[in-house]
Design a protein that fits this description.
By secondary structure, this protein is of the alpha/beta class. It has helices at about 50-55, 80-85, 95-100, 105-115, 125-135, 150-165, 180-200, 210-215, 235-240, 245-250, 255-260; strands at about 5-15, 20-30, 35-40, 65-70, 70, 90, 170-175, 200-205, 220-225, 225-230. Strand 7 (about 170-175), helix 7 (about 180-200) and strand 8 (about 200-205) form a beta-alpha-beta unit. Bound molecules: adenosine-5'-diphosphate (ADP) and magnesium ion.
């Protein structure tokens, strides 16, 4: 048996709250296979972003294990961690906050190519053009500043930056939530195309089950830091068993419509 791309077990992160502690992530376990999309869904405050930050080691857990590409990710450091980090990228909800707004598009894409030694200085301009084309942007945008381009274009730049290092897994934390409906559908289409062509796995975090149903193979539904239920995305969303799953489905009235837009 081969091990999954990512195996998370017993992940726990506690925060102090009014003299007590709350578990933002409470004994969370899941796995992701290569080329697969697992969605983490749940209401605001259920621990989705905490899990995303734990995956990237932006914060460290109080307990649990993360095995990524066959290695113990939490015990890695130095050059080994830097090398592995290139394989695990993140896209955030707000690219204006995640990217330097005054940087040019070219600069944003040059950074990962340089830092991770993906391409030489002479090769990088051509790589940047290829990346822009890859995410459906005109190479003519390279000289524009991040704050000058549209929200949809910015999120495409964020995706281009994420795939620049040829990751096997991209964590997307509400990456399409701030986009209007038609732009959201285009970005979902792009993510599906990239996954098919480059076999990238996604940990796709969203509070919106319509979007989850359109993009995810499997879903885990979080409630107050715990996984309330998980399984095949359509099976769970079409017939949720948990109280939180039922509440989220009731809050997503246009499930079938969003799916049509993305297909
Ligand atoms: P979600 O992304 O699902 O909205 P979060 O992971 O952001 O949820 O938050 C989960 C819980 O952890 C919330 O109760 C939140 O207030 C708490 N929390 C998250 N980050 C911190 C922090 N740095 N310090 C204290 N509490 C936090
Ligand atoms: Mg969040």
């Amino acid at each position: 048996m081969t091990s999954p791309l990512l195996a998370v077990s017993g992940l726990t992160k506690r925060y102090p709250r009014g003299g007590k502690t709350i578990a933002a992530a409470d004994n969370v376990s899941f796995h992701i296979e290569a080329g697969e999309t697992l969605a983490l869904a749940g209401p605001s405050g259920s621990g989705k972003s905490t899990i995303a930050r734990l995956m990237l080691r932006l914060i460290e857990p109080d307990a649990g294990h993360i095995e990524f590409e066959g290695s113990d990710f939490l015990s890695m450091n130095g050059a080994a961690l830097r090398h592995r980090r290139a394989r695990l990228q993140m896209v955030f909800q707000d690219p204006l906050a995640a990217l330097n707004p005054r940087a040019t598009v070219a600069r944003v894409l040059d950074d990962p190519l340089r830092i991770h030694h993906i391409a030489s200085r002479a090769e990088r301009p051509r790589r940047i053009v290829t990346l822009l084309e890859r995410v459906g942007l005109s190479p003519g945008l390279a000289g524009r500043a991040i704050h000058e381009i549209s929200g949809g274009q910015r999120q495409r730049v964020a995706i281009a930056r994420a795939i620049a290092t040829k990751p096997s897994l991209v964590v997307l934390d509400e990456a399409v939530s701030a986009l209007d409906v038609s732009v959201r559908a285009q970005i979902l289409r792009l993510l599906l195309d990239l996954q098919r062509e480059e076999r990238i796995a996604y940990l796709f975090i969203s509070h919106d089950l319509g979007v989850v149903r359109a993009i995810a193979h499997r879903v885990a539904i979080l409630d107050a830091g715990r996984i309330a239920e998980s399984g095949d995305a359509r099976t769970v969303i079409d017939a949720p068993q948990s109280a939180i799953g039922k509440a989220l489905v009731a809050a997503a009235p246009r499930l079938s419509r969003i799916e049509q837009d993305a297909s």
